[in-house]
């Protein structure tokens, strides 16, 4: 059996966004895999529920996403970048009985949030556009060769002026409706006559807000929301609207707070949406609320359940319109639940104990979902609506896994000072594990801070790669993690570092009691909040031989002033830099740089606008100033999602650098430290930029 390597990333396919056909006989899903060093191919596949393998439904040209069946099952709509020089996603429609897909939009902002009307005559979508786009009609049709000019100078009026990997530059999200029959008659060069913009002309909240989460009620009703408040970017308040298409009338019918990402509605006017209490919202659990348009009453059917539907969780009405299905983290799993929308009964777990349900879709008789487990990174499954009978529909990585040694993690429970109840973690040993030998230990710390880890999900390849390199890998859900109730999630209030480190070290102590773990050869890494904690750790203990800090937050004040997520600091610490500057400095990893002796590699992305690079630069500068073994690796074109969806060459390069850094300080590897080797020694994924930097002798290069 071959061992898993970092470069295997190029051979691993991912699946996402399963969608049941209206007749319940097929599931459409997106299959995504690296295409070359810089890009991915993503195509839509369809697999029958009754047996037989999946077939590719769209051509391999660009990146396809959001497959959506028409209500009668005759068409499949999807977004795609095919044929677009600037990666703008356009709306395509393909007959499910066979035939060519037809592009039905050519809009300037790209399309997302696709949804069919119940009668199949229309599709709604959103796109991000400027006032000039709306005034000139580019939001309805634009030449495919059109390129948006970069502002020079860039004039900024918003608090949140960049997100993901791009500056917003005046673009706002708006809701549109496309008449399907008209659009199909206007191909292959859509002229925009089939498109109507619903938002931005005066009511409901004007043009200078973002309208989000459109969903259909009946054939003539669309619901959506907009963030409101005197300064919307500084607000957690959303207003929900009902848009009557026949009358072109808009009614604001309720409000919510938190981070609203989805709305789902029934034909008889029951509207489900997310609600997070505004006070200390970043630590609080997100609930589901249901507004009944007929009675005006509201219920919170998830209230009896001490779990959150935040962070990559979903919800959806069942086909009868009476029961809601939703997912939550739950003690190392991601579980699907059901609950009556009127809150007449408490939530019931449907499926997911011991596995990770990534996304799901509810049909009349079944639930389709993507599930990852310890032995595979993800496939499409179906289960009954009661979760009693489960069938695996795809095995997209079987050929790759056939000759790969995959290790099975062991669940670990341990105590920690100050924590109520045991904490949960996992231990992964090398594939050729010998209990009579000893192995170095890598400790992985998750991001968030309010997320949770499982035995699978997005970390599958990284954990297996490190184990295959001869390391025992340990990860856990310390206090602050979700999936264990709100009290545990809020236990790190105003104290990210000390509380989390107490729990992580307790877990390290527990696993180091194993005879096969070399307690003197221990390493630590993590990304985002895990990067914060890695930096905090090396400033407060010398327990670790070396560290790799990734896409972290290192100075809370610098983070607050540069991120699009400053509400996280306000919620978790209950303050701002102007109120308690000294306190925030003490709570920042850079404050302890003079105490760092641990060799620390710092990885960051140039376009990470969630945890911008300015605080990583400060941390790296401090390490160099205090003569700590360090190196700063900057990845061009990448954002905060580098480890999950960055350019394939960069994803591989990152993993190899982590392992190489640890190898150089491990007593179990006869390898010099990375700083003593040629810059590209042991690396298979050198980018052109890194090679150029190496020639120039730039100390900040990879």
Overall description:
- The structure is a single chain.
- The protein has a domain at 409-630 and 650-665: Rossmann fold (3-Layer(aba) Sandwich).
- With 702 residues, the protein is of the alpha+beta class.
- The chain starts with a strand and ends in a 6-residue tail after the last helix.
- Helix content is 17%, strand content 32%.
- The protein is globular, with a radius of gyration of 25 Å.
- Strands 33-34-36-35-37-38-39-40 form an 8-stranded mixed beta sheet, sandwiched between helices.
- The longest helix is centred in the C-terminal third of the chain and has 17 residues, at 496-512.
- The chain has 14 helices and 40 strands.
- Helix 6 packs across helix 7 (529-540).
- Residues 282-296, 669-681 have a biased composition (Basic and acidic residues).
- Residues 461-666 form the Peptidase S9 prolyl oligopeptidase catalytic domain.
Measure the end-to-end span: 32 Å
pLDDT under 50 segments (min length 5)?
687-702
Radius of gyration (Å): 25 Å
Which structural class best describes the helix and strand composition?
Answer: alpha+beta
Number of helices: 14
Major β-sheet strand ordering: 33-34-36-35-37-38-39-40
How confident overall, as mean pLDDT? Answer: 94
CATH architecture name of the domain at 409-630 and 650-665: 3-Layer(aba) Sandwich
Oligomer: single chain
* CATH topology term of the domain at 409-630 and 650-665: Rossmann fold
Q: Report the β-strand fraction as a percent range.
A: 25-35%
Helix coverage percent = 10-25%
Tally of extended strands? 40
Biased composition (Acidic residues): 688-702
Protein name: Peptidase S9 prolyl oligopeptidase active site domain protein
Keywords: Hydrolase, Protease, Serine protease
Organism: Natrinema gari JCM 14663
């Amino acid at each position: 059996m071959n061992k898993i390597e970092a470069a295997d990333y190029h051979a691993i396919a991912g699946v996402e966004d399963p969608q049941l056909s209206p007749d319940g006989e097929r599931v459409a899903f997106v299959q995504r895999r690296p295409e070359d060093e810089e890009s991915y191919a993503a195509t839509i596949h369809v697999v029958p529920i009754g047996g037989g393998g999946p077939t590719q439904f769209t051509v391999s040209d660009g990146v396809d996403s959001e497959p959506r069946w028409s209500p009668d099952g005759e068409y499949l709509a999807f977004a795609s970048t095919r044929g677009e020089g600037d990666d703008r996603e356009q709306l395509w429609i393909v007959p499910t009985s066979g035939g060519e897909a037809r592009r039905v939009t050519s809009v300037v902002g790209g399309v997302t949030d696709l949804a069919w009307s119940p009668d199949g005559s229309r599709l709604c979508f959103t796109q991000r556009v400027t006032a000039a786009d709306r005034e000139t009609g580019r939001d309805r049709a634009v030449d495919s060769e059109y390129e948006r000019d970069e502002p020079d100078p860039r004039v900024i009026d918003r608090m949140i002026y960049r997100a993901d990997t791009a500056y917003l530059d005046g673009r706002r999200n708006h809701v549109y409706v496309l008449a399907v029959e008209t659009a199909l008659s206007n191909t292959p060069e859509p002229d925009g006559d089939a498109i109507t913009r619903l938002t931005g002309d005066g009511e409901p909240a004007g043009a200078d807000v973002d309208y989000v989460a459109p969903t259909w009620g009946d054939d003539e009703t669309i619901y959506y929301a907009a963030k409101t408040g005197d300064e919307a970017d500084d607000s957690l308040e959303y207003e929900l609207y009902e848009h009557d298409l026949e009358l072109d009338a808009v009614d604001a019918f309720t409000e919510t707070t938190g981070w609203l990402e989805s709305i789902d509605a029934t034909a008889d006017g029951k509207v489900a949406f997310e609600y997070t209490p505004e006070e200390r919202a970043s630590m609080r659990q997100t609930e589901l609320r249901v507004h009944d348009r007929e009675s005006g009453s509201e219920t919170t059917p998830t209230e009896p359940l001490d779990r959150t539907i935040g962070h990559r969780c979903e919800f959806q009405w069942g086909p009868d319109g009476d029961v809601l299905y939703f997912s939550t983290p739950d003690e190392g799993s991601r579980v699907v639940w059901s609950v009556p929308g009127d809150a007449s009964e408490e939530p019931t777990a449907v499926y997911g104990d011991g596995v990770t349900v990534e996304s799901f879709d509810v049909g009349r008789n079944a639930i389709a979902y993507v599930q990852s487990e310890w032995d595979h990174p993800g496939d499409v499954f179906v289960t009954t609506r009661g979760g009693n009978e489960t069938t695996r529909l795809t095995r997209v990585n079987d050929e790759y896994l056939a000759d790969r040694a995959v290790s099975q993690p062991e669940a670990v429970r341990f105590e920690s000072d100050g924590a109520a109840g045991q904490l949960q973690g996992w231990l992964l040993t090398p594939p050729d594990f010998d209990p009579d030998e000893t192995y170095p230990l890598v400790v992985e710390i998750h991001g968030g801070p309010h997320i949770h880890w499982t035995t699978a999900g997005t970390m599958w390849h990284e954990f297996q790669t490190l184990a295959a390199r001869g390391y025992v890998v340990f990860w856990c859900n310390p206090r602050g993690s979700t999936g264990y109730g709100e009290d545990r999630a809020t236990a790190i209030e105003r104290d990210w570092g000390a509380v989390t480190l107490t729990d992580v070290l307790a877990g390290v102590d527990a696993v180091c009691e194993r005879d096969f773990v070399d307690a003197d050869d221990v390493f630590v890494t993590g990304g985002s909040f895990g990067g914060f904690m890695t930096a905090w750790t090396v400033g407060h203990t010398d327990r670790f031989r070396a560290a790799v800090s990734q896409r972290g937050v290192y100075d809370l004040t610098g983070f607050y002033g540069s991120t699009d997520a400053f509400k996280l600091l306000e919620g978790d610490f209950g303050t701002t830099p102007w109120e308690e500057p000294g306190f925030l400095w003490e709570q920042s990893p850079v404050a302890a740089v003079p105490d760092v002796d641990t060799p620390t590699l710092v990885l960051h992305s140039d376009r990470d606008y969630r945890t911008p690079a300015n605080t990583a630069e400060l941390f790296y500068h401090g390490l160099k100033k205090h003569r700590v073994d360090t190196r700063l690796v900057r990845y061009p074109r990448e954002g905060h999602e580098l480890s999950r969806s960055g350019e394939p060459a960069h994803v591989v390069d990152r993993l190899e650098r982590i392992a190489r850094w640890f190898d150089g300080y491990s007593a179990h590897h006869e390898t010099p430290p990375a700083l003593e080797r040629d810059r590209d020694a042991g690396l298979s994924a050198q980018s052109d930029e890194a090679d150029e930097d190496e020639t120039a002798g730039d100390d900040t290069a990879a």
